[in-house]
Amino acid sequence: MTDHPIKPPALRPGDTVGVIAPAAALEREYLERGVSALVKLGYRVKVSEHALDRAGVFAGNDEVRAAELHRFFADPEVKAVFAARGGYGTGRLLPMIDFEAIARRPKILMGFSDLTFLLNAFVKRAGMVTFHGPMVAMDLARGLGPRALDQLRGLLAGEMRSAEFEAREVVCPGTAEGEVVGGCLSVIVAMLGTPYAPDFRGRILFLEDTGEKAYRIDRMLVHLRQAGALDQIAGLVFGGMRAMDGSEQEERMIAQFIAEQTTGLRCPVLGGLEAGHGTEHLTIPLGLRARLDSPSRRLLFTEAAVS
Residue 1 has what pLDDT? Predict the structure, then answer.
């Protein structure tokens, strides 16, 4: 990533949003609900003709899913590309992606969870700002709250010259500045050791996850720490970290493990950002510089995420 990331053009009412399915297979009903939600937001929508394909657990075979990603980034009518859902399968596409071609036609890429593979690979290999946020046949189909919808529209339209995200707690005090990378914890750990893993040096690392036992959260944080990633970052902020069974005991253990695995880090650590699984699901730009501030419990972006 350079000092001047490539910002995709803003998305405004009447523009066309392309919907692709780069991961798990999806249901028509949920896709249609999500598309209706995008239309209500004022966008035109173009859905991949392969969105409802099935190949085992995937939304079509790897080659078709990768080709649709390229096709929608090359399509001049499409101004933003939203993922239909996550699940599993996005990581299989990374060796097939022409990152130089993507960088020549920058567009908003929106998704989270399994899309963490693409979001961070685009930041690292294409030098492009991406967006960790709601997916069409999942979050938009179920319905987002008014604040999340307003924030999504404003952020993508470039109306927000700055954006603040409040955390609930301070795990380790301090302030830091750096580009934000990260997303789903289990995916970030799966990317370690590959050419697509985030560059952690001087970055603010955002982590969230869901449906995991507390001990598995601990194991993944141990992996990040022993791999040296947590020694390189400028700051760390956690979003939703919901336990598999949602029990209070598991939630307490997750909080305890986070405290233990961040002890001794020479950087600020905040928790409880309303982003990711099980939260209000605010949209966070990745690849864009921000400030992490423990006194105000804020992650603050001071520039627009789009051009």
Answer: 44
